[in-house]
Design a protein that fits this description.
Elements: H1 2-24, H2 40-50, H3 54-63, H4 65-85, H5 93-114, H6 135-154, H7 158-182, H8 187-216
């Protein structure tokens, strides 16, 4: 528990420092419509290296519905528990915690949409959109690991566990790499999302472990 908590806090601090650096280090007007970009030399070098692949962008955009579907499934599970047990306090603690965690992830997404740090390296449908951190990457890496954690808690079938773990790892890798080389984000946007999402997940994992320990101790 303490290890996950420490790791989560460390990653969130790293994300905060990374964000500050992006705002002040090597800031140049190299984006569309003369938008300013931090780590401009590094970002433009990588962007020129990968180019823009709109088909990959569209595919990863639609596949962003997968983690949303995962959230909805657990939301339905929580609602089912609530209706069956007729009390919010009788709903599984880890499910309630999961709901709060998802709300926190959504808040993080909305905050950076309202307070842009970097803008995309290309216009989307003629508009300049906020790009930091990559919202799709944040959603995937924040939500999909919770599927592994919940399956490990709720299933004793090793085959199901292995299939879910394999799917989550392959899907997450495809989404992150796909988003990275699609050319719709700066590489620093992806790095920021990785730090933030894993930081949040580690805090959630630490809280779940604490709940499990309390159950084992009969608290």
């Amino acid at each position: 528990m303490k290890k996950n908590l420490t790791t989560g806090i460390f990653l969130l601090i790293a994300f905060a420092l990374w964000t500050v650096l992006i705002m002040f280090v090597d800031v140049q007007t190299v984006g569309p419509n003369d938008s300013k970009v931090g780590f401009a030399t590094f970002n433009t070098w990588f962007h020129q290296l990968t180019g823009v692949h709109m088909t990959l962008y569209i595919v990863t955009d639609w596949l962003g519905l997968v983690p949303i579907a995962v959230c909805l499934c657990f939301g339905c599970l929580g609602l089912y528990r609530l209706i069956k047990r007729r009390s919010l306090f009788k709903v599984d603690a880890d499910i309630l915690l999961l709901g709060g965690y998802y709300i926190l992830v959504i808040f993080g997404y909305l905050f950076f949409e309202m307070v842009p740090v970097n803008y995309r390296p290309i216009l989307i449908n003629g508009f300049l959109e906020a790009s930091y951190p990559s919202s799709t990457t944040l959603l995937v890496l924040s939500v999909m690991p919770t599927l592994i954690l919940q399956i490990n808690h709720r299933s004793h079938n090793k085959t199901i566990k292995n299939v879910v773990i394999g799917f989550v790892l392959l899907f997450s890798a495809f989404m992150v790499i796909g988003r990275l080389i699609s050319g719709v984000h700066w590489i620093t946007d992806i790095i920021g999302s990785i730090l933030l999402s894993f930081g949040l997940f580690k805090l959630y994992q630490s809280a779940v472990t604490a709940i499990d320990l309390r159950k084992e101790n009969g608290v």
